[in-house]
Amino acid sequence: MNKLETQLQDALAKRFGSAVDVPADLPGLDSLLRIVEQSSQRRWADTAVPPELTRLLAACALCAPTKSYLQQADIVDVRDTAQRAALTALTPSMPWLADAPALLVFCGNGRRFKRLFERAGQAFSNDHLDSFFNATVDASLVMMNFINAAAAVGLVSCPISLLRNQADKLAQILALPERVVPVAGLCIGYPAAPTALNPRLPLAATFHTDRIGAVDDDPAVDDFDARYIAARAEQSGGAAPPRAWSTERLHQYSASQRDDWGRFVRAQGFDLR
Ligand SMILES: Cc1cc2nc3c(=O)[nH]c(=O)nc-3n(C[C@H](O)[C@H](O)[C@H](O)COP(=O)(O)O)c2cc1C
Question: Which of 43, 137, 143, 264 is the most buried (most CB within 10 A)?
Fold first, then answer.
């Protein structure tokens, strides 16, 4: 087994808690390893990320597949200091966002699609939930492409949905027109320090052949909780007794969050029938 195969297998075993076979002589292992080692990072080296670089990465990202060739993803690279400060003020619990060398916001744009019909003087007969869904899926694919493009040039990143907690203010700051909604922000920068990989649910729970079947995979969650606690204990050097993944998620979502999102999306002009 060559070095890359070993690295990939080790990283996969760390993520999933059991071995994932890597067929011999597979090309592209370096790209696979980069995907497996992708992690959200929140500490940045004091090195700028110039606008020409984010523009290049945006161009790469926007080559993602797009539903019905509608091209419903837009990216805002927030460069102006006052604009950055206004966005940072929306997320006081995340001081590392202020320090990020660059911040982008990925948006689903359902306006362009509808406008094609307006310009042609034709009725728009697709004003329903699927249109909103397709625009947000396009934006999500573009953001993931951007994350991978950034990683390829040595940058690290962290998506930020917390910005949407104050969606009206976010839309105002970014001057989002009707039928354009923010999907997530993305901080990028050069890494300040190596980051440990966060484990994932076992493949037995999330990868299926032919059909899904049983949906309540409690044993898989229990197994994952144990690995999560061990990973957190290792990451913190035993500083604090770690909680299980399921306990943390219960705590995080014990109160309703962002329950005005539907109102916001409707106010932006989407009909969610
Ligand atoms: C759509 C989306 C929104 C996210 N929003 C935030 C956020 O607001 N704040 C944050 O610290 N991390 C955010 N994250 C990062 C997740 O917390 C992170 O992916 C998760 O903890 C797993 O860690 P990993 O990416 O390092 O494997 C977001 C991730 C996604 C995909």
Answer: 143
